[in-house]
Give the backbone structure.
Amino acid sequence: PAGEAYKAWLRYARLDREFIEGNGYASWCGTVVTASAEDAALLATARRELAEGIESMLGRRPQESGNADEGSFLLIGTLGSAELQGLTDAAEREAIGDEGYILRAFEQPMRRFIAIGGNTDKGVLYGAFHLLRLLQTGQPIRDLNVVDRPASKLRMIDHWDNMDGSVERGYAGRSIFFREGDFLGDWDRVRDYARLMAAVGLNAVAINNVNVHETETRLIAPELLPSVARAASVFREYGIRLYLSVNFASPIQLGGLTTADPLDPRVREWWAERTADVYRHVPDFGGYLVKADSEFRPGPFTYGRDHADGANLLAEALRPHGGIVIWRCFVYDCQQDWRDRKTDRARAAYDHFRPLDGKFDENVILQIKNGPMDFQVREPVSPLFGGLQRTNQVLELQITQEYTGQQRHLCYLVPQWKEAIDFDTYAKGPGSTVAKAATGELFDRPLGGFAAVSNIGDDGNWTGHPLAQANFYGFGRLAWRPELSAEQIADEWVRLTFGSDPDVVATIGRMLLDSWPIYEKYTSPLGVGWMVNPNHHYGPNVDGYEYSMWGTYHYADCHGIGVDRTVRTGTGYAGQYHDAPAAMYESAESCPDELLLFFHHLPYSHVLKSGRTIIQHIYDTHFEGAEQAEGLVETWRRLSGKIDAERYESVLSRLEQQAKHAAEWRDVVNTYFCRKSGIPDAHGRQIY
Ligand code: GCU
């Protein structure tokens, strides 16, 4: 694979002459000096990345040897090395931590140089990618002075890849790791992927699906560990630690025991031994990711134990080796009776895990989906953020567009994630954002961060829809620095991916930023979710999940729609938040329009803050959304000739499909609610 789309945000397109000369890039970048006596692995990676990136952008490969005494050059190394010592002070070294870096230009009598220094070689690698990003986007570097570090320790991608090569909820081809029950062995591709990850600061990857089936259970068995080790070594070159999803019933399925009871000494011993063997093969193995007692996966409930017992069992096995357990909170009753209106799936994670706060070992992290349901187009934030105060936690997002158009529709998710990350839980008064809860800052937790379900596969452009690369990129950047705005990230990504033509930058940037609102308009109104076809979850089906066992209802009848989740008359879910957000959601007056039907069941004639009735809002947004989806096609066409044919055509054909499917959504949803409510569209538009 070689196309422009394959290179993603590491295209390193040749820069214009004026750019190079105006910024004096060539004079700084002619030589890369590596601090002496340092051959740490990641420094070699950083040097290679700089050399290749610079060669590609400036047309001349920098020399990779030289001394730091005179001339002009880039200087890379750890801050303890002879060459970089003295360039920073103790406070700065402290500020950048294990993974941060300084990037600073020095002009001295005999020499001028840009230092890229970290306390560790990993920091240096991130610094190198930062510099490359600046060059690619044409930033001045003359007075460079950056002191940076990631906001959180764990910045992780979860793959839902199965060993047969399929990817659960994958929309970009097959797995890049597995095929037909074994590793695929395309290590070059894995390395290219690791580069893309490291360039946006990601440092952890779980390579197999959280639904761990029979073959995948064997990933921790002796026969597959050598291949696991091989994969880990490729990621290691880029500072990324490998994790595996494990099956809680492994002691039975793999170990031949009769039980997987977390309190049984034989089970504990089995995990300790197996885990020690994993570390013999992969000394820096990250740890286990676990989906237990969820959607038919085995777990501690079978033995009358709770999630803390289950997680701590694995924590004990991993602790001697420095590994961690990432235990998912996606636990709910998936065999609910739709007639039962008391049970509310939205409550489940909090009801299960809040009582266990403080009972998890120090090397356990709970992984919490952004919303209480399941990656819908719009959901409130999980009340576990702010609810858990003595437990490490990680925010789980979904980059793969399961419910947001399956990479056939354009849906830039960073604005959605930003809303979750910036949400104020009020757990310790105003300013207690989800970002601070997830990083661990809010309650001073030792571990924390961000994880997201991958959207990549073996497609030539990685993500199926070329513009869906922006979501992967955006996740990495946000995990590094949650305060970046969706606009900044979009702008940066477009420049890296398509170059700096102002028209291209403005047009694609706008398309990205408009896309989630457009998608929301023609799909699910006012916080109602699940109006999709069962199983594959693509396309409109208003009652697709209405009479099912999955706890996913909108309760539309001829009078109204929505789920009453208030404390006063509903399921009480709104009461799981702290005072301020709880009060906001409890009353239909203060509940924001976009989540109104998530929290309230209301008549179609209810007047929104926008001044429109609910039914008219449904009609208006569906007509508008479908029209805007058409508009995206026209907007894209105007870029014809400014983008290479491969990517231009590929995006165009997807936008055309999207426009067609948006019309289908519009007509199905409008027709359904018109028939249910008997209320016509105030503007007399076509409803069937
Ligand atoms: C969703 C998705 C499943 C997945 C599950 C999970 O429900 O549809 O395919 O296994 O999330 O996050 O575990």
